[in-house]
Every structure is written in C-alpha cells, then in structure tokens.
Amino acid sequence: VHSQVCIIFHDFGKMQNVCNLLTEKLGSSVTISAPHFYHTPEAVDTLRRQVCVAAVGNTRRKAQEVCRLFGQSLGKPLLIREEETKEWGGHRDGHPSDTSGSLTLQERIQNATVYASCRVSAVFEIKGKENKRNKLL
C-alpha cells in the first residue's frame, strides 16, 4: 500500500523538523521528496507594502538629517508618492527554472527568494527651530 501526503509549510524550520521526525520514526518506509517553494500572491503583496513603508521611513530619516544640518526641524509630510516598485528573482507561478532536480536545497531556496525595491519621493514641511528663550517664557 502506497500513500502520498502533500503538506504546505509556511516555516522552513518547521518543515525540516517534521521531515527529520518522519525519517527518524518511519525509516526507509518513507520517501521525502525535495521541497517545492512558491510565493502566494498575498505574500508578494505584503512584501511590496513592507518595502514601500520602509522606503518612506528611509526618506523621512534622510530628510530629518538634512533639516538638522541646516538647523531646521522636519514637519509633517505634504506629499508622498511611490515612484517605482521592482521585483526580481523567485517563482510566483510555482515553476522552478530547473525541473530536473539537480539543484541543491540552497540553490532551490535562492531561486525561490523574491527581492523587491521601491523608489518614493516625499515633500515635507520644514519648520524653523524655536528660540530656546521663547520656550522658557
């Protein structure tokens, strides 16, 4: 009697632990196939949002540094625009580039990794620093 079980893991570490446990408990009676990595559309969308938020945060920190250089303080954002978002690497469609199985696990992970970048522009209000004497009065 042969059975095939397909399990979807969201955590690579847990996948390794389960595979090790199955191999330990069932020995040669179990065959574990190489993992198939893929990204759900929701996961890629979450990555895009995280990258955009990080880009806006970086832009704000840089603007704060420039303001400090000129003795000013950064005010509220007046305009934030996402200029460009790029993604590369990975396989969102679930079809790896090498189906022969000759890739190592590390190569499979590397091929399945998705990278993203986002370019934003932002316009911030700039405030002059108040005189310390005026703050004390």
Automatic annotation (TrEMBL):
Keywords: Cytoplasm, Nucleus. InterPro entries: IRAK1BP1, SIMPL/DUF541. One of its GO terms (cellular component) is cytoplasm. One of its GO terms (biological process) is positive regulation of canonical NF-kappaB signal transduction. Its main location: cytoplasm. It comes from the Eukaryota. The keyword Cytoplasm applies. It is found in: Cytoplasm; Nucleus. Belongs to the IRAK1BP1 family. PANTHER family: INTERLEUKIN-1 RECEPTOR-ASSOCIATED KINASE 1-BINDING PROTEIN 1 (PTHR18842:SF2). This is IKBP1 protein. It comes from Nothocercus nigrocapillus. The lineage of its organism: Eukaryota, Metazoa, Chordata, Craniata, Vertebrata. The gene is Irak1bp1.
